[in-house]
Amino acid sequence: MKFFIDTANLDDIREAHDLGILDGVTTNPSLMAKEGIAGHDNVMKHYKAICDLVDGDVSAEVISTDFDGMVREGELLAQLDEKIVVKIPMIKDGIKACAYFSAQGIKTNMTLVFSPGQALLAAKAGATYVSPFVGRLDDISSDGLELISKIRHIYDNYGYETQILAASVRHAMHIINCAEIGADVMTGPFSAMLSLLKHPLTDSGLAQFLADHAKANGGK
Ligand code: E4P
Question: CA end-to-end span of the chain, whole Å?
Answer without folding.
Answer: 43
